[in-house]
DUF2931 domain-containing protein (Geomonas limicola), 343 residues
Amino acid sequence: MVRHLRILLITLFILVPFNSEAKGIFSIMHTEKFDWLPTESAHRRYPMTLIRGDLTLKDGSYLYVPAKFLIDNRWGEIGSTHVVGKTMKSLPAKLSATWFSFTENKFFAGDFVLPYDTILELCQTMISPKTGKTPNSYYIRFGFGPEGAVSVWVSAEGISVEVGNFRAAEVAMDWKTVLDNEEVSRADFIDQILHESLKPQELRDLNEHGVPPGISDHFSKQYRWNLEVIGQKNRMLWLKTLNGEEEYFDFVKTSNARTSRGLPQSLEVYWDDKTGRKFQAVVRFDEAEVTAAYKKLSGEKTDYPMQLKLEISDNPEVIHTSLNDGKYVILLGKTEVKTYSRR
């Protein structure tokens, strides 16, 4: 039996011409597999509903992006997860998506070739800050934003890296794909969703100005800046940026050589004071203040070097934040800090 199988395989190899099509066949046969799950996200201020999110994996199999009806869980965050099929599976190569944007009253759709090689490299080389080893499992996050924006991230254990940005086209679709209920009008249903998702001032701004043009480019834009934390000891932190990424800094064991990143959104910082007491603080930046500061110092140049500085005082409730370019300093006075004791 084994001898017959060998003869069959040799015969097949001879009969199949070794061209690009044949290479594709053998590539699919040897596709690497990982433990990963897809998940969805959208900006809290720009809620969406995902009508279709179909994934074609590298080996030709299929999966889907799960989603609850209303997506407003913040950009790049983990949303719904459905544990279906095999645990170990090929990575995604294509995305076909259709969704509805409530703030714009528009449908968007598109087919996108995903950066498979980049996704594969991250799954092979990403190191967990918790264990110092390759993570056992991953999330591949898909974000659906205003103006047809689509972003994709690979994430695991507190690290999330943006691997692609795309733009879908506006399309015309039957409203019944969102709500098949003739007793509720399209306008009334959208109004209901927006009142549930948006804060009163956000709703007033939307009604008065609409969705700001270029908002998706604003969220995805990266600047050249690094992070410095001074004061206290044994400092480490997780940083979240407006483009949905998450980074880890421990300032001792590992170096973060990255030079460009999105605007800072929030961070969690951990430290010990001089007496050995342990603290943790959640620091949230004011988006308008941070945006204005970065634009003012950089002159809109994305390659202009800047530094975000955190100064942890002896009073654990006080953390000063500022942005500088080595010559000028802008204090970020609207930053919110909440400090907690930890064991």
About this structure: The radius of gyration is 24 Å. The helical segments are 2-15, 20-29, 116-125, 186-197, 200-209, 215-220, 287-298.
